[in-house]
Design brief:
230 residues, mainly beta, Immunoglobulin-like, five-stranded mixed sheet, 1 helix, 18 strands
Amino acid sequence: MKRFLSFFSLLGGLWLGAVSQPKISVDPMEMDMGTVYSGGVKTARYTIKNIGDQPLLIKTVQPSCGCTTVRRPKDWIQPSKSDYVDIEFSAVPGMRGKTEKYVFISTNDPTARELTLKISADIMEELQPVSPLSSIPFGGLVLGKEITQTMIYKNVSQKRISIKELLSTSENLKATANKMSVNPSDSIVVTVTLIPDKEGFAYEHVTLSTDSKNQPKVEIRVSYIGIKGQ
């Protein structure tokens, strides 16, 4: 009889040990941010709860893209307690249409050591590039030799958009526009002039500042590889 009781006591101890563990619950697992205009920012929050009976360790919280920043929860979440993962998603220039990004979480939950949270958004533009590219990759350029390129933007909104100013990140990069206001369905031509002054890969950008509340800035990214002349 004693052996019989000891056997079941051992089984009970094993069973209790098996269920005594942290367990993560995330609400929601997927976040649809709806429409985000190019250059805009939206924030969201995921609730992290420990529904187990042992402390939950949040080891890492890592976004899949530099366009997403996260505020991670505290390292340890006690049983029945909650914390949050706050995210800030930036619709950087070049993103268009349906976009998906992710946040990866690693924990000490033996049943969910790695979790993937999904972020989706529909990126829209009011001044939309006619070209498939929203950047100007010049490629290899001889240092000191001037080169120009144009970008055409169409106003796909229902209102007139005015360009307040054109700004660049370098004195060797300049931009002009053929007009400073664009009616709906009309287009604007931006001419970018570059005199490369850096050897190797370089990155600059031109910003069109507009009066649009949805898209107050339009960025033209410019890249090149500076080469010394013969």
